[in-house]
Amino acid sequence: MKIPFIYTFRSLWTRKLTAMMTIAGVGLVVFVFAAVLMLAQGLKDTLVATGSSDNAILLRSSAESETLSSISRDAASILEAMPEVATGQDGKPMDSKECVVIINMNKKGSHDMGNVTVRGLSSAGLAMRPQIHMTEGRMFTPGTSELIVGNEIASRFEGAQIGGQVKFGGRMWTIVGVFDAGKTGFASELIGDVDQVMQAFNRPVYSAMIFRMKSPDDFPAIKAKVEADPRLMDLTVKREKDFYAAESQQLADFISILGTVITIIFSFGAMIGAMITMYAAVANRTVEIGTLRALGFRRRSVLGAFLTESLIIALIGGVAGLLLASSMQLVTISTLNWSSFTEIAFGFSMTPQIVASTIIFALIMGFIGGFLPAARAARLNIINALRAS
Fold first, then answer.
1. Mean pLDDT taken over the chain
2. Where in the chain are the domains?
3. Distance (Å) of CA 262 to CA 38, 265, 356
4. How many helices (H) and strands (E) does the chain have?
5. pTM of the predicted model over 0.85
């Protein structure tokens, strides 16, 4: 015979205080676990959303970021002449030759220095970035020392508001507009005219070249041509989404590994708490267990009942931890991207995979914490249990 579920729920209700304390412990561990996964996922989502499936990027083969890459003007001209590169309504190739550099700016409040990306764009650069929408001011005028700034930079750094001035490259640059780039890496950048940025830093070559493909299916053909052309032998072409996804991998992996190790350490405390709670339940219900066994319930039924009780506690704690972690989606943080060595703002991101992983993690804690007490309850001798009264 199986012990009815109502018995398990009644037992939990009888021990409300100890059950709630155990649920709180599990919930806090689950919150940390889910928050770590959400943080790593948020970083990945931000950088992946920065790229477009219609775009590809040309950069130096050995470069892991745009700031470390260089492309000659001749190489850029060779690629934009390829038939697979899309053209605009004006008949010109849809590409943006870009110069990406790093400058230092003071953060608001703390006045600490932070590395910020400055991106010089060609005329078609913004048209190829539909994620960018002007919210204040106006677009920069080509050929001038004017910049537009991402909303995350405007909110976090001094002098990054409309009318403010930033000094770098031996000249003063005026902020004339603020743009919203959604949850993408562009929100953490300053953008200006590519020729002016190159002149300011004495750069004779571009950092990278972004171009629109006529079809995403044309990528293999473009890649094959780049690899076969001896004039482009030191360059490589990647899908823009793949490039930005790779930029997030190192930091995201570090966050996930470190956070998981810390969470596992914390989980021992939660499992010990669950184990103490269940051992106490077994000690207080020794006569009940003896009665159940005398009524014909088998050892495995007793084991299952107590294990189910522990799993229910863990499940409630897991759901509570998830609900608390979901509120973190309203929070945006800023940190240093290890690939580009610049500040990037991103938020916490909840996915179905994170929800499933978190619930499984909570149930594992409940199983481990409840198994030994449940096994002890199942092994109790009927006569000795009945005599315990």
1. 86
2. 5-48+247-387, 63-233
3. 15, 5, 20
4. 11, 12
5. no
